[in-house]
Amino acid sequence: MSPTVHFTIDGQPCQAKPGDKILQAARDNGIFIPTLCDYEGVKPVGSCRLCTVRVNGRLLTACTTPVAEGMEVENDNAEMNDLRKAVIELLFVEGNHFCPACEKSGNCELQALAYKYQMMVPRFPYQFNPREVDASHPNLIHDRNRCILCKRCVRLVLDEKGRQAFTFNKRGNKVTVVVDKELGAKMTPELAQYAAHICPVGAILPKPSGFETPIGERRFDKKPIGLDNAKIDTHA
Ligand code: FES
Asked: In the structure, which protein residues have their CB atom closer than 6 angstroms to any atom of ligand 1?
């Protein structure tokens, strides 16, 4: 097998290691592909569909599709960007995202991507689904109004024995993320902070304090998402 795979993204020649996924290869070649569920260090699950690209004519998720020799990837064009905008709009109408009152405003990847793709009024009707807020745990608040079911918390927030503190509950359009009662009660402030950090939206917030950094001085207030390829700027 050749040690290097040659392919193009939007006509730009790129190289990657065999087995690399398109998303990682794009980053390594200085190209931004938007994501919400992907997170460095865990296996991609392809749940948000925001990284969708057109590969040799087919729509595929960049986070789960390996590069191949001669592959032609279409990423940053009107069709792909409108598709991404539609996904973002769907997330906004399906959840209850009240950005001006959200502690994560300015640090929220969904909000930052909505700005990037210039979302105005969503083309889909708002659902206003009733969602619960679970503030019963000593070190974190779980606000399901803002959850986008990216599964990052399920995959990444583990206790010292590797047990998942967050899990999916129910199925289909009833699916929701819940916090394990026992592990939620025992969760350290550090793990709660980490959970809030990896949550791309404001669904997980650490107790006891909030709004320590004023709105206007937060991560995406200073540098809009996708402006450069700083090793996935969503993870800063
Ligand atoms: Fe690829 Fe979410 S980042 S589907």
From this structure: 35-38, 44, 46-51, 61, 63
